[in-house]
Design brief:
- The chain has helices at about 1-20, 30-40, 55-65, 70-95, 100-110, 115-120, 125-145, 150-165, 170-185, 190-200, 205-220, 230-245, 250-275, 280-290, 300-305, 310-320, 325-345, 360-370, 390, 410-415, 430-435, 455-460, and strands at about 375-380, 400-405, 420-425, 440-450, 470-480.
- The protein is an alpha/beta fold and about 475 residues long.
- The chain has two domains: about 1-345, no CATH class; about 360-480, no CATH class.
- The chain has a five-stranded mixed beta sheet, with helices on both faces.
Length: about 475
């Protein structure tokens, strides 16, 4: 009974943080993709046009059919529910062997994690990935201890197949890591049999897996810097910052994080050098997962795609049984202070490293719609700079025409000379369209999501010739009446 009363306050706090103001952030592109997959009309196809297997979408589709008033908020709440279940699983499986103080330390870091707050409230499969990966690792630990048990082997194979049906990256990383450890321990028969059974369970989806692999192979991933080596450094640094400090750290938290980083890195390395029972599985899974997203996700999306590793990152810090008790306690206390600052910034919609989460798509779309009367409007969406998914899925009035290719503008403007032209893009002082349209159109700018002082200082340090003041802008070209 005592263990329940220790866990309960953290569950209540996590639920409060997770469910408070679920409408705080606007719908962004990946969430819009979720809505496209789960809301009617549905064409009956399960093979995703992107790189996502069907399990989450099937569960989400069943969840929204319960009749929630707002599908988006209900799906965000579903992510919070998966997060709460994950917390119970972690406590029952991993924290049960720890002393009470280590348990409380972990639950504090986990519950107040700003990274978990950001991604745990999104209408995506991130927290379900965490939950299933925890179950796979738990089953794999038992399989490594008792490799001759058919029942344990079956539980592992079923959970691994379920994870593969949820998402390829954690699924392949977990199966690869478990298979590698079994081979390393010379359990060749167990490795082959378990791998074959997982393959048979996953056979119906292998064609879609090959299609997803071909899509990823052809995709060009955005790099912040041209150098491959520097790009990997940016990815790793962003991943580290997001996991331990969150993606909404105020300036003082960034400064504190820089001072704390050496101690954090030391504890992480020391944790994997110790006899922690989960390190044999997590280290190779982390490596495989990171390599798996290399040709798929840009640096800003590495933390979300690897969120299933976050429980073990916190466990590496909070487990006082691994030594350096005073250092771990001091680092954990400092991390909790930094987390409080990041959580405050999150709910204040400030200091976001990824400004794309703040773009108010609904507000922008409403602005376009209001300008359509009586002559309509043409909206040019910059595909290279703006996530246009929320606009493509919107039911637009008949007078609005969306355009994704600037080459089509001359013909459209010739047919509709009285229409207002909008150009939605990342902010840039230069306006090539203004020169093309000449004096026939009056230009007006609308801007959203201002850059902070820190952002502008970073631009200056990087030597940017043109430094925008806002993330996104809409240029309104209204015909001049003669």
């Amino acid at each position: 009974m005592k263990t329940v009363w220790v866990l309960l306050p953290f569950l209540l706090l996590q639920a409060a943080l997770g469910l408070y103001r679920l409408d705080l952030l606007p719908t962004w592109g990946d969430e819009n993709h979720t809505l496209e997959k789960v809301l009617p009309p549905w064409d009956g196809s399960l093979c995703d046009r992107d790189v996502h297997p069907p399990l989450y979408f099937l569960l989400a589709r069943g969840w929204v059919r319960l009749g929630w008033p707002d599908p988006l908020l209900s799906l965000r709440a579903l992510s919070v529910l998966f997060l709460l279940i994950s917390t119970v699983v972690i406590d029952r499986i991993w924290l049960a062997r720890l002393r009470q103080f280590s348990r409380v330390l972990f639950l504090s870091l986990w519950t107040l994690s700003p990274c978990l707050l950001l991604y745990g409230r999104m209408a995506r499969s991130y927290t379900l990935q965490v939950l299933l990966f925890l179950l796979v690792v738990a089953a794999a630990r038992r399989l490594l201890d008792r490799p001759d048990s058919p029942r344990i082997g079956l539980v592992y194979c079923l959970s691994a197949a379920a994870l593969l049906y949820l998402h390829y990256i954690p699924g392949l990383a977990a199966v690869g890591a478990v298979g590698g450890v079994l081979l390393w321990r010379r359990r060749i028969q167990v490795a082959l049999l378990s791998g074959l059974l997982v393959l048979l369970l996953y056979a119906p989806w292998l064609i879609c897996l090959s299609q997803a692999a071909s899509i990823v192979a052809r995709k060009e991933v955005y790099r912040l810097v041209p150098s491959l080596l520097l790009d990997q450094g940016v990815r790793l640094a962003y991943w580290f910052v997001s996991f331990f400090y969150g993606e909404t750290p105020p300036v003082w938290a960034i400064a504190g994080g820089l001072l704390l980083a050496p101690a954090l890195l030391f504890l992480l390395v020391d944790s994997f050098r110790s006899r922690a029972e989960w390190r044999l599985l997590i280290a190779p899974a982390a490596l495989l997962g990171y390599l798996g997203i290399g040709q798929w996700a840009s640096f800003a999306f590495v933390p979300a795609r690897l969120l299933w590793l976050l429980p073990f990152a916190w466990l590496a810090i909070a487990d006082l049984e691994q030594g350096h008790r005073r250092l771990r306690t001091a680092v954990a206390a400092a991390l909790l202070c930094l987390s409080a600052g990041s959580i405050h910034s999150y709910f204040g919609k400030q200091d976001f490293l990824n400004k794309g989460y703040l773009i108010p798509y609904q507000e922008i779309a409403s602005l376009f719609e209001k300008s359509a009367d009586p002559n309509g409007a043409i909206v040019l969406l910059d595909l290279d700079q703006i996530d246009t998914g929320p606009f493509a899925a919107r039911a637009w009035p008949a007078g609005i025409r969306l355009v994704r290719d600037a080459a089509a503008l001359p013909a459209l403007l010739a047919k509709r000379p009285a229409a207002t032209l909008w150009h939605l893009r990342r902010q840039d002082p230069e306006v090539p369209l203004a020169a093309q349209l000449g004096e026939r159109y009056a230009l007006r700018r609308y801007t959203w999501v201002p850059y902070s002082r820190l952002d502008r200082a970073i631009m200056e340090a990087l030597g940017w010739a043109r430094r925008p003041t806002h993330v996104v802008e809409a240029l309104e070209f209204r015909p001049v009446l003669k």
